[in-house]
Specification:
- Helices cover 36% and strands 19% of the residues.
- It is an alpha/beta fold and 389 residues long.
- It folds into 2 domains: 200 residues, nicotinate phosphoribosyltransferase, CATH 3.20.140.10; 112 residues, Aldolase class I (TIM Barrel, Alpha-Beta Barrel), CATH 3.20.20.
- The strands form 4 sheets. It has a 7-stranded antiparallel β-sheet. A 6-stranded parallel β-sheet has the order 7-6-11-10-9-8.
- A hairpin with a 5-residue loop joins β14 and β15.
- α5 crosses α6.
- The longest helix is centred in the N-terminal third of the chain and has 24 residues.
């Protein structure tokens, strides 16, 4: 990527043409933004800012960007690049791939976490993607709100501990569910929760009770991974499992559900379970369409049709009232509520040097969760910012 080969051929041709026509020193400002979110989306989570910083580091350009994990709307730029277009144009493909993929995953994870209603969400999605990108996928899912990830390398990258239960393969190879649960309990260290997979060979209720009798007080929880093809009415199954555990004296046993979980299932089941394992719906989310567009050439506002010309800044108040302005314009107080505003785009790179601290994955996740908490209390959230030319 740093060599500029992960690009579309027309960017290489553009650079050659600019150099041969002596147009290669023209300074262009390009902004990354979305002009259309997926259906039913009102916001997205900006992810991949850290990787973009590493991609563009060392180039003779300046970069302004929002913080990793910032909630953003349609029209609002999340990155602005200033410098000779011939220097950074070839990186557009990689830059957009980083931002669009990471942002789409983080946004879906945030929506899933909100729907979970405070219940634990574990990301089990690395088996859905090519292993070369699994750490990125794990990081974006964690940043967006997942409480933990199952991927070993991904967890190492984000500085967290990988979380998981047991696969059906363990039970099948051993040949008996109770013996497999006992083996797990005898081999795994004490800090690994005893969560028994309970749908491999028989009815979920029967296996959950068997696991409770087998491990007793050492059993932390049971996981039901019933696929949709065998599921029937999953809510009824969960009611039956919960009821059976409680009337048999195992009311403290937690229930986790996985297997094709998406927002709708979470909404329906969250009052009956203690946590969810989610994979495909986060790993393959609706795409947040981020584009990079030139908005200024040598200080002159200039853009293609359908885009707002001129370099911009985004101001936001604590009530999430948001304003897009010309870059030099200052909005100190929110015109709607009078609260103090803050600019979202701050300098990330100055003449090739990263000048802003890059937060840890944990810190970025906490930032996301704080914003989501505030968003949940806002009744007048608007999908688009107010334009203040």
């Amino acid at each position: 990527m740093k060599g500029g080969k992960s690009t579309d051929i027309y960017f290489l041709r553009t650079r050659e043409i600019l150099e041969r026509t002596q147009s290669d020193r023209k300074v262009a400002v390009a902004e990354a933004h979305t002009y259309g979110l997926p259906e039913s989306y009102q916001w997205a989570i900006a992810a991949g800012i850290e990787e973009v910083a590493w991609l563009l580091e060392g180039l003779p350009i300046d970069v302004y960007a929002v913080e990793e994990g910032t909630v953003f709307r349609e029209l609002s730029p999340i990155i602005a690049i200033e410098g000779p277009y011939s220097v950074y144009g070839v990186y557009e493909t990689s830059l957009l791939g980083i931002l669009r993929h990471s942002t789409s995953i983080a946004t879906k994870a945030a929506r899933i976490k909100l729907r979970a209603g405070g219940k634990t969400v574990l990301f089990f999605g690395v088996r859905c993607v090519h292993p070369a990108i699994s750490p990125m996928v794990d990081r974006a899912a964690y940043l967006g709100g997942c409480d933990a990830v199952s991927g070993v390398l991904g967890a190492e990258v984000i500085g967290a501990k990988p979380m998981g239960t047991m696969p059906h393969a363990l039970i099948l190879v051993i040949g008996d569910a109770s013996q497999a649960w006992k083996a797990f309990d005898s081999v795994m260290p004490a800090d690994v929760p005893r969560i028994a997979l309970c749908d491999t060979l028989s009815d979920e209720r029967l296996e959950a009770l068997a696991a409770a009798h087998t491990l007793g007080k050492r059993l932390y929880g049971v996981r039901l991974d019933t696929p949709s093809s065998r599921r029937g009415n999953m809510r009824r199954i969960l009611e039956e499992v919960r009821w059976s555990l409680e009337v048999n004296g195992f009311k403290d046993v937690r229930i986790f559900v996985s297997g094709g979980i998406d927002e709708e299932e979470m909404q329906e089941l969250k009052d009956l379970v203690d946590g969810f394992g989610v994979g495909t719906s986060i790993a393959f989310p609706p795409s947040v369409d981020i584009a990079l567009d030139i908005v200024e050439i040598d200080g002159r506002p200039f853009s293609k049709r359908g885009k707002l010309p001129g370099r911009k800044q985004v101001y936001r108040c604590p009530n999430f009232h948001e304003y897009v302005t010309p870059f030099q314009k200052i909005v100190e107080r929110c015109p709607r509520c009078g609260e103090k505003t803050s600019p979202l785009l701050t300098k990330l790179i100055a003449n090739g040097e990263i000048v802003r601290p890059l937060p840890s994955s944990k810190a970025s996740r906490e930032y996301v969760m704080e914003q989501l908490d505030r968003l949940g209390k806002i009744t007048d959230f608007e999908k688009e910012p107010t334009l203040l030319p």
